[in-house]
Write a structure and sequence with these properties.
Layout (H helix, E strand, L loop, with lengths): L1 E3 L13 H24 L14 E3 L2 E5 L7 H4 L14 H5 L9 E6 L5 E4 H5 L5 E8 L4 E11 H7 L8 E6 L19 E5 H5 L4 E6 L2 E2 L9 E3 L12 E7 L6 H5 L23 E4 L6 E2 L7 H4 L13
Parallel strand pairs: 3-6, 4-13, 7-14
Antiparallel strand pairs: 1-2, 4-5, 6-7, 7-10, 8-9, 8-13, 10-11, 10-12, 14-15
The chain binds the ligand Nc1nc2c(c(=O)[nH]1)N[C@H]1C(S)=C(S)[C@@H](COP(=O)(O)O)O[C@H]1N2 and molybdenum atom.
The ligand Nc1nc2c(c(=O)[nH]1)N[C@H]1C(S)=C(S)[C@@H](COP(=O)(O)O)O[C@H]1N2 binds next to loops.
């Protein structure tokens, strides 16, 4: 797989049709194979960086995810939840168009031996990118299948040496009302904050995404860095992250603060536990007519159910 760095004059990601994408893939498949072999020969598997000017980044295929057909790119980039750019599903594609996700600094602090602030490019340097085709299941009852490009969050956290007191990870989105017009209104308590238990964060299915399909992450999908936790409802997958803090206590999260009876800390996809105002038994795959049943842990029960052994999932929803 390849990831393409947009150049001035290139079409917006939302303007690229699947056909165009397919042709691009065909065109660059040779380059992909060649650099893939170089990465293997290098031993470490470190991918080249998505740097401005560097046109392609090698993405080895990962052994994770689903073989379901991905949702077309134009749907993935035009039907979004990203309240920093408006509450309508079509708002982020339009209102995040001019957002500049570079330069970008991420702070990693709290219960780590080596805290610090990092330029995004440097933060990503040692990581090999993979394609992970995961379902994203929104708490509202719709889902998509997205070919994400990213790397396991755990690999990043380990580099900063979590202390023995680190039990949770707190993530924070950029807070800049000049650049994120939705933050000029008090719809949510900004900045957007999410959290994971440490074992959830270290689970190999949990990734930080820097791209999707063959593109750097489009702004509306959370550029330049967003979390993807495939067995949890979509709102856990926080976008445009500027801070990752390891903490002793369970973090207070944005949606839990907004409506504690409706959105719990865990928010594992669970068809057995209804949202107080609607059932979670089924979902509508964007682009399809009929609803399909929602799967326990979004289909990842074999990999993650053990994390919650003995927990009452009605209480810890
Ligand atoms: N910062 C931030 N992250 C966010 C949101 C948001 O409003 N702000 N929305 C969440 C919700 S509700 C969903 S369903 C997913 C949607 O991701 P997508 O637009 O890439 O499909 O992003 C999540 N991450
Ligand atoms: Mo969502």
């Amino acid at each position: 797989m390849l990831i393409r760095t947009p150049r001035r004059g290139d079409p917006e990601p939302s303007e690229i049709t699947p056909e165009k994408l397919y042709r691009d893939r065909r065109r660059f498949i040779g380059a992909s194979l060649a650099s893939g072999m170089m990465a293997l020969a290098g031993g470490g598997g470190a991918a080249p960086l998505p740097q401005p000017g560097a046109r392609f980044v090698q993405v080895p295929r990962g052994a994770f995810g689903t073989d379901e057909t991905p949702t077309p790119l134009e749907k993935v980039t035009r039907y979004n939840n990203f309240y920093e750019f408006g509450t309508g599903k079509g708002d982020p594609a339009v209102r995040a168009r001019d957002f500049q996700p570079r330069p970008w600094t991420v702070t990693i602090d709290g219960e780590v031996e080596r805290p610090g602030s990092f330029d995004l490019e440097d933060l990503l340097k040692p990581h090999a990118f993979e394609e992970r085709i995961y379902r994203l299941r929104c708490v509202e009852g719709w889902s998509m299948v997205i070919p994400w490009i990213g790397f396991p969050l755990g690999n990043l956290l380990k580099r900063f040496h979590p202390t023995s007191r680190a039990r949770y990870v707190e993530f924070t989105t950029l807070h800049d009302p000049r650049r994120m017009p939705g933050q000029r209104r008090g719809i949510l308590d900004w900045p957007y904050v999410e959290g994971l238990r440490m074992d959830e964060a270290m689970h190999p299915l949990t990734i930080l995404a820097v791209g999707l399909y063959d593109e750097l992450l489009p702004n509306q999908n959370g550029a330049p860095l967003r979390l993807v936790v495939p067995w949890k409802y979509g709102f856990k997958s926080i976008k445009s992250i500027v801070r990752i803090r390891l903490v002793e206590r369970q973090p207070e999260t944005t949606w839990h603060k907004a409506a504690p009876e409706e959105y719990g800390f865990y928010s594992n996809v669970n068809p057995e536990v209804d949202h107080p105002r609607w059932s979670q038994r089924k979902e509508r795959r964007i682009g399809e007519l009929f609803k399909r049943p929602t799967l326990m842990f979004n289909g990842y029960a074999d990999q993650v159910a053990h994390l919650y052994a003995g927990m009452d999932l009605r209480k810890y929803f």
